[in-house]
């Protein structure tokens, strides 16, 4: 699988019932765990003080990432995504064993 750096920004449409937004956010957490278990979601961060997320995701290719991975997120219709394909760097130290 290929790795991608993905920046996601979610904007709940004006006038959306808060209960609907809450249901989608709860479903989003469940789906994220499923995608992590399947090896698609590797890491996910939220920049301090911001409402966007930055993560490392895995998929066969960018089309697969959009259609079969990100497109399955309950909040996807309200998201914008910036996707950057990644490749190994010769100086990458590899996993450090640290956990967040």
Give an overview of the whole structure.
- This protein is α+β, with helices and mostly antiparallel strands.
- It has a single domain, classed as Alpha-Beta Plaits.
- It has 2 helices and 4 strands; from the N terminus they run βαββαβ.
- A 4-stranded antiparallel beta sheet has the order 2-3-1-4.
- It is globular.
- The two termini are 23 Å apart.
- 12% of the residues are buried.
What are the salient characteristics of this protein?
100 residues, alpha+beta, Alpha-Beta Plaits, four-stranded antiparallel β-sheet, 2 helices, 4 strands, 28% helix, globular
Order of helices and strands: EHEEHE
Q: Specify the CATH architecture.
A: 2-Layer Sandwich
Question: What order do the strands of the largest sheet run in, or round the barrel if closed?
Answer: 2-3-1-4
CATH superfamily: Dimeric alpha+beta barrel
Overall residue-averaged pLDDT value: 94
Tell me the domain tally.
Answer: 1
- In whole angstroms, the N-to-C terminal distance is 23 Å
The portion of residues forming beta strands comes to 25-35%
Helix content: 25-40%
Question: What is the fold named in CATH at topology level?
Answer: Alpha-Beta Plaits
Q: Uncertain spans, ≥5 residues at pLDDT below 50?
A: none
Main sheet record: 4 strands, antiparallel
